[in-house]
């Protein structure tokens, strides 16, 4: 199944939260227990530098440089949560996916139009590109 397309608008310097639902065709949430995932934001699909990296373990940003290479970067607060509500509470097999990035990490994300994808990893280790699109960040005025 090809990745769905969703363009994200995330304000520089503001806390970012996006709640997604992964459901069967009939509307029942897919159980994401023991799932993993990773999301990267880059200036372009060809760029080696990473602007943001989210996993189930947390979020990494570029700090004052805005970009970092794999294995480096500045730890922030947030990441990817599975089977959650918009508030981050666990609700059982909901199919809820919550992406969170703290305001301080977002403060250093370079303004402009970037690109991202979110990959899900199931219990068999199979990787699926779940969603992709642009990650647009308008410049913060209050600094």
The main sheet comes to:
8 strands, mixed
Share of β-strand residues: 35-45%
How would you name the oligomeric state of the polypeptide chains in this document? single chain
Termini separation (Å)? 42 Å
Outline the structure in words.
It is a single chain. With 143 residues, this protein is mainly beta. It is built from one helix and eleven strands, in the order βββββββββαββ. The chain has one helix spanning 103-107; strands spanning 4-5, 8-9, 16-21, 36-42, 52-55, 58-61, 74-75, 78-82, 96-101, 112-121, 127-137. Strands 1, 2, 4, 5, 6, 7, 10 and 11 form an eight-stranded mixed β-sheet that branches. The chain has a three-stranded antiparallel β-sheet with strand order 3-9-8. The longest helix has 5 residues, at 103-107.
Keyphrases for this structure?
single chain, 143 residues, mainly beta, eight-stranded mixed beta sheet, three-stranded antiparallel beta sheet, 41% strand
Task: Summarize the SSE layout with pairings.
Blueprint: E1 4-5, E2 8-9, E3 16-21, E4 36-42, E5 52-55, E6 58-61, E7 74-75, E8 78-82, E9 96-101, H1 103-107, E10 112-121, E11 127-137
Parallel strand pairs: 1-11, 2-11
Antiparallel strand pairs: 3-9, 4-5, 4-10, 5-6, 6-7, 8-9, 10-11
Offer a quick outline of the entry.
By secondary structure, the protein is mostly beta strands.
